[in-house]
Amino acid sequence: MTRRRWIAENWDETSATLTGAQAEHLARVLRAVVGMEAEVVAGGRLFHARVASVSHSGEASEVRFALASELRADPALPVTLVMAVYKFDRMEWALEKATELGVAAIVPVIARRTEKHLAQAAGKRVERWRRIVHEASQQARRADVPVVDDPVPLADRVNMPANAVRIVLAEQERITALRDAIGDILARSSEKSPAFEIAIGPEGGWAPAEETLFATSGWRAVSLGPRILRAETAAIAALAVIASSLE
Ligand code: SAM
């Protein structure tokens, strides 16, 4: 039987604690009892654990685990998605899928063609995006949760020094396919899995000035094929190509 996996909010060397929605579900829906076995993620490490206590104060529940043995955890893909902010419902679907596919971090960026009202609302939406990747990490039985940064202007991220291979998904690119670029990078790299930053444009695509900015800042433009993909499809396709090369 696959043990359920929980992602602890608080932990120390020997115990881990669930609060909030996770604790509610475990305590009230799954009726957790002392001794019940589970897998618990604590600080990016994965443990076999047993319920040590279940407590309720008012509406809130808390479940504390005794950590038993450490288990092997599959690492995240060494990929940061630099995602231009676009329609929230579809962007949030992409966040969930990118989490399932193993992304390590997500940086929401405000691009020229990000709609004004979305650019203004993005800052208030981040907590919801963090909840979405937390729940998706649990469902995907990850041993970590992708980091979701606060939204920043695109140029700030493009110009930021980074020790990663930087790739921009460019719908106008016709020469270099992502698969070939990855193969080329891995062949030249001394590291088994170098870190990657992958930029995905908004619904309206990258503005010409942004394409120039990427080019002059050392980002490689790559294609995902002759068809124009929606941003969320491009995110999934890119992560699947990279995962198939690294995992
Ligand atoms: N409005 C743009 C157009 O019609 O040319 C399409 C933008 S597309 C919906 C959103 C983003 O997905 C693009 O900026 C790019 O980052 C990525 N994308 C979509 N199709 C792609 C492809 N075939 N190759 C590379 N990137 C692609």
Explained architecture:
With 247 residues, the protein is an alpha/beta fold. It contains seven helices and 13 strands. It has helices at residues 20-29, 88-100, 116-139, 154-159, 178-188, 208-216, 231-246; strands at residues 5-7, 10-11, 15-18, 37-42, 45-57, 60-71, 79-84, 105-110, 147-148, 152-153, 165-169, 196-200, 220-222. α3 links the parallel β8 (105-110) and β9. α2 runs parallel beside α3 (116-139), α2 (88-100) packs parallel to α7 (231-246) and α5 (178-188) runs parallel beside α7 (231-246). The model has no long low-confidence stretch (mean pLDDT 93). The site of S-adenosylmethionine has 18 residues, from α7.
Short summary of the structure?
The protein has 247 residues and is α/β, with parallel strands linked by helices. It is 36% helix and 28% strand.
Main sheet record: 7 strands, parallel
* Helix residue percentage: 25-40%
Form type: elongated
Secondary structure category:
alpha/beta
Which segments are poorly predicted (pLDDT under 50) over 5 or more consecutive residues? none
Rg result: 20 Å
Average pLDDT metric: 93
How far apart, in Å, are the first and last alpha carbons? 25 Å
Hetero groups in this structure are: S-adenosylmethionine
- Helices and strands, in N-to-C order? EEEHEEEEHEHEEHEHEHEH
Would you report the number of β strands?
A: 13
β-strand percent reads 25-35%
Number of helical stretches of at least 4 residues: 7
Descriptive key words:
single chain, 247 residues, alpha/beta, 7-stranded parallel sheet, 6-stranded mixed sheet, 28% strand, elongated, binds S-adenosylmethionine
